[in-house]
Design goal:
- Helix content is 38%, strand content 30%.
- The protein is α+β, with helices and mostly antiparallel strands and 133 residues long.
- It has one domain: Apc35880, domain 1 (Alpha-Beta Plaits, 2-Layer Sandwich).
- Strands 2-3-1-4 form a four-stranded antiparallel beta sheet.
- The radius of gyration is 22 Å and the shape is elongated.
- The mean pLDDT is 86.
């Protein structure tokens, strides 16, 4: 039976998700200069759109500290979808009152360590040698 020590250094994997973190600072003087009704309309438009993308793998968080006021995190199948999302977000009126302070892009792969061990154990039980690592 194969143990984790006998496995090749890289487990079998399946594609994970592309991930974009965006951090923003509110341009407070410009935001406060708007009439209360205009701020409410802009906030409602942004909230409605953020609500629709939440079901597709996005989330909004309030930030603490000096680095920003708002963080958006987006999980999508690939970078193309994230690029499209960025363009749609930039069309919101709220974007005129936000300054992106930082962002980062990554890929999350789903490791299959347990499944890899099971596959190699099954192969060994059948007398089949695993592929060379």
């Amino acid at each position: 039976m194969y143990s984790f020590e006998n496995l090749p250094p890289v487990p079998l994997t399946i594609e994970g998700a592309s991930l974009l973190h965006q951090m923003f600072r509110v341009r407070w003087p410009a935001w406060r200069a708007l009439a209360a009704g205009e701020r409410a309309n802009i906030a409602a438009e942004a909230a409605a759109y953020l609500s629709t993308i939440e079901s597709a793998g996005s989330a909004a968080f309030s930030m603490l500290g000096h680095k920003g006021d708002l963080m958006l995190i987006h999980f999508r199948p690939g970078f193309d979808e994230l690029g499209e999302l960025e363009l749609r977000l930039a069309r919101l009126r709220l974007w005129d009152y936000l300054e992106q302070t930082t962002s980062y892009l990554s890929v999350v792969e789903l490791g299959l360590y347990e499944s890899t061990a099971k596959v190699y154990s099954t192969l060994a039980e059948r007398g089949i040698a695993p592929p060379p690592s």
